[in-house]
Amino acid sequence: MTNVAVVGSQWGDEGKGKIVDVLSKEADVVVRFQGGHNAGHTLVIDGKTYKLHLLPSGIVRPNKLSIIGNGVVVNPEALLGEIENVKSQGVDITPDNLLLAENTNLILPAHSVLDNAMEEARGAKKLGTTGRGIGLCYEDKVARRGIRICDLEHSDYLKERLENMLSHHNVLLKGFGADTLNVTDVYDELMKSAEKLLPYVGVAWKRLDEAHKKGEKILFEGAQGHMLDVDHGTYPFVTSSNTVAAQAAAGSGVGAKEIGYVLGITKAYTTRVGTGPFPTELDNAEGELLGQRGHEFGTTTGRKRRCGWFDAALVRQSVKTGGIDGIALTKLDVLDGFDELKICVGYDINGERYDHYPASAVHQANAKPVYETMKGWKEDTQKARSFADLPAEAVKYVKYIEELIEAPVAILSVSPDRDDTIVMQDLFSA
Ligand code: IMP
Known about the structure:
Elements: E1 4-8, H1 16-24, E2 29-32, E3 41-45, E4 48-52, E5 65-68, E6 73-74, H2 76-87, E7 98-101, E8 105-106, H3 109-122, H4 134-142, H5 155-175, H6 183-197, E9 201-202, H7 204-214, E10 218-221, H8 247-250, E11 261-267, E12 270-272, H9 285-293, E13 306-308, E14 310-311, H10 312-322, E15 326-330, E16 340-349, E17 352-354, H11 361-366, E18 368-375, H12 392-405, E19 409-413, E20 421-423
Helix pairs in contact: 3-4, 3-5, 5-6
The protein binds inosinic acid.
């Protein structure tokens, strides 16, 4: 028996929510360990759609504990709004099934105001952030200016911390020509949320240690994707957290050995929201078709996602840097009907051949994909219930991906519905 960490191997939006939901059936505890409400996980269960941003996907199943770990950045209003929203869909959310780590940093009003003001100031060089204040909150955390959820219990200390933080924020707000904030207003606003949030707050690392001792199965739910990792991604066009599975340990308070099997969720083609390099992007009718068939619009911002061919060189890099043991290949059905499919196997950068995606932003911007072409298939793969049901060309496509990325396909997903998932391996026993 082992734990499982689920991470995105591309630029996010690989379909993690659905896979986590499938796996959470077996898990006892589901933990978010990084990111914030920039994430968007869509679950479709019995025809009902749930859109989650901060809540772990396990929340929609009864008798599971969902934990928001210390590596996450939490906007109190966004979390409370999401709790109310999901509750209104008939899901029970109480302190018995939701635990918020006491050492989690909070996103405050200035974070998103500054996030948007800084994006505006970047002009044509925008990073394309979600505008949720994620990066600004992580900046304050690392600068030791952050407000943590445990601070809400101590009013004098909280005011002192807010004064310290606002003395920094107000300088920036002034510089951007935005309204400055005063401690009393921010404090009063926070206090409104505190009463509702504090019942969920607890010592996550202890509860996880108990889970470990009891032999409970833990599922670590990543957000975004490896190529958005602040170290291993397409810097500076990245998010502000580590999205690799290693972060599951630091971001929740368990040892590195506890992470267990690392499952990389991988879309059968590639998408990206926001700006930044994307070698296999298709700025043509094929890209449009992928977007339409795959319903490629952001869950969080509604932005149209950029679409392109599968980039095996990039996913192989994620497999290596993130310790991915196997992948869940999603949205294979979106490729039904194409005459030909291209797979990127490396890059040409100024006439030199690379089998990896170099770290330099200059190289990344100049990288031209080196493609191999495969025959497509006309059959409807949504009907497949086992690997053997897939058309021969689809099997060839999947097998070739496995060979190129040097990792096996452990799960295959052929539609948004939870039932249309072919599980090749019991990951909790892997
Ligand atoms: P931030 O995380 O809001 O700072 O945005 C930084 C970059 O990460 C932008 O390119 C966003 O579009 C991207 N990003 C953040 N969250 C997600 C996600 O859940 N899926 C896909 N892209 C994301």
